[in-house]
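One example given next:
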Amino acid sequence: MNLYPAAVEEMARALYIRALKQLPDDVKQGIERLRAEEGHAGARRVLDTMIHNIEVAEDTRNLLCQDTGLPIYNVLIGRDVVFDGVDIKDAITTGCRRATHEHPLRSSVVHPLTRLNDHTSTGRRVPVIHFDFDDAPERVRIEMIPKGSGSENGSWLRMCLPAEGVDAIKTFVIDRVLEAGGKVCPPTIVGVGIGGTSDLCMHLAKVAATRPLGSTCADEEGARLEQALGAAVNALGIGPQGLGGDATAFAVHVETAATHITLNPVAVNIQCHSARRASATLTPDGIAFGF
C-alpha cells in the first residue's frame, strides 16, 4: 500500500478539528459514571455542568474547550506500506496549519523566547510527531492529541533511586496529584510512566494519560499499581475542578519500560477532564475515523 502525502494531510487536518470537538465515548461514559457515584452535592453540580458543556459543544459543533493545545500526532505504520517519511512529516504539518486557518482555530503555539505567535499552530519542531511501526499489513493509524495548558502543565519527572522501591513511585504520583489540585481541571486521567530513560519515561506518561478509559496496563505489575494508585488518588478529596468531592480522577494509567540497573525514573502527565483525542486508520479499503 502506498501512503500518499495528500491523504495524510487531509487526515491530519480532520483529526485536529475532530479531537477538539468530539469527546471519546469512553470519557463521556466516565463522567456519567463519576456523576452516578459522587457523594457530594456540590461535586455533582460541577459534573452536571461538565456534562452540559459536552452536550452544548456537540449540539452546536463548537469546541469543547477554548484551548486548542500543542498538537501531537502519533503515527503507527504497518508492514507493506510504502512511504517517504519526510513527505509524510511535511503533510502532517500542512494539515495542522490548514485546520488552524480553515476552521479557524485559535493558535496556541508561540516561540519559547519571543512568545511570538504566527497563528499556524505550528513552529520549530511543532507539531510533535512520533513515528512507530507494527506488523499489521497495509495499515496506517494516526492519533491526534491536543495537549492544552491544563493537561501539559500537569507534568513532572523524578529520577528515583532503585533502592527507594515502589513506595517512592506511589509517593511521587500522589504528591503530584495533590500539588496539581484543581489546576489540571479534574476529574483527570493520571498518566504514569515508569522506567526507560528520562525522555522515554515522560513519553510513556503521555501514552498512559491518553489511553482509553477501561484499558489496563499490559504489564501485570503495572496493572496492579494502577489499581492501588486509582483508589489512593480518589481518596484525596480534591474532587471535580478541585472544589471537593470523590471524583478526583477517572483512573490512573501506568505504562512501563525496561530501565538501567541504577535508574528508576517515574513521570506523571495529567490529562484534564476534557480528555481529547482522535484517530484515523487508513487501509486499502479507505479511512475510518475513531478515537
Notes: The first helix runs from residue 5 to 21. The chain has two domains: 5-20+64-148+276-290, 149-271. The domain at 5-20+64-148+276-290 is CATH 3.30.1330 (60s Ribosomal Protein L30; Chain: A;).
